[in-house]
């Protein structure tokens, strides 16, 4: 079976020995990937000292019925910008459909909808994103920096953030205890 050319709808998992410490044990939901570059939302770490209610308060939005869930560290690019990765049962202007699997929305409308109990049935919130220029992610893939696995709702919405990286590998049939930072060529 041929590997997909683009990784939209896949999870990108950092391999041991990732040269950039910001991505150690990273789990990134790939939302955009084409010849121009790539964008993904990190779901492997939480932001310290801020929850969803604080974010809504900072934006002047009443918390309404919204749960006070933790916020993910989406990535090092634009860490002040918020994103909601959610089920396709809600869509608004500017929402990006991700491989018929998820939807990515970065507008205040979705925050208001969630607070009013009219938002998507399942969602994760993140600040920042991971981004790559044209060919950059492909180069990192060739250097064994990343492993890909199909994304699924259980990993995205149900899995504890502290075990998401290992669970994603396990779901792909990989025992993380056997992974090493060393690699070579045959």
Oligomer: single chain
Q: Give the helix tally.
A: 5
Instruction: Spell out the helices and strands N to C.
Output: EEEEHEEEEHEHEHH
> CATH superfamily assignment?
VC0467-like
Counting structural domains, the number is: 1
GO cellular component, one term: cytosol
Organism: Allosphingosinicella humi
Family: Belongs to the UPF0301 (AlgH) family.
Protein name: UPF0301 protein DF286_12675
Short structural description:
The protein has 186 residues and is of the alpha+beta class.
Description:
This protein is α+β, with helices and mostly antiparallel strands and 186 residues long. The protein has a single domain (10-178), classed as VC0467-like (3-Layer(aba) Sandwich). 19% of the residues lie in helices and 33% in strands. The chain contains five helices and ten strands, in the order ββββαββββαβαβαα. The chain has helices spanning 52-58, 108-115, 136-142, 153-158, 164-171, and strands at 10-14, 27-34, 37-42, 46-51, 70-73, 77-86, 96-98, 102-105, 123-133, 146-150. Strands 1, 2, 3, 4, 5, 6, 7, 8, 9 and 10 form a ten-stranded mixed sheet that branches. The chain is globular, with a radius of gyration of 17 Å. The two termini are 22 Å apart.
Question: Tags for this entry?
Answer:
single chain, 186 residues, alpha+beta, 10-stranded mixed sheet, 5 helices, 33% strand, UPF0301 protein DF286_12675
């Amino acid at each position: 079976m041929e590997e997909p050319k683009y990784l939209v709808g896949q999870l990108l998992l950092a391999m041991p020995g990732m040269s950039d410490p910001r991505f150690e044990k990273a789990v990134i939901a790939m939302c955009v990937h084409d010849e121009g570059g790539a964008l993904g939302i990190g779901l492997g770490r939480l932001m310290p000292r801020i929850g969803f209610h604080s974010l809504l308060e900072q934006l002047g939005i009443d918390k309404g019925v919204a749960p006070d869930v933790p916020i993910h560290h989406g990535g090092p690019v634009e860490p002040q910008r918020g994103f909601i990765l959610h089920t396709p049962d809600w869509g608004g202007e500017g929402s990006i459909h991700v491989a018929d699997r998820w939807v990515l929305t970065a507008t205040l409308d979705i925050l208001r909808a969630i607070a009013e109990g009219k938002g998507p049935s399942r969602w994760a919130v993140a600040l920042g994103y991971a981004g790559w220029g044209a060919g950059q992610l492909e180069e990192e893939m060739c250097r064994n920096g990343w492993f890909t696995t199909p994304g699924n709702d259980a990993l995205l919405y149900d899995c504890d953030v502290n075990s998401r990286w290992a669970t994603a590998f396990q779901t792909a049939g990989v025992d993380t205890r056997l992974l090493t930072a060393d690699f070579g060529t045959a």
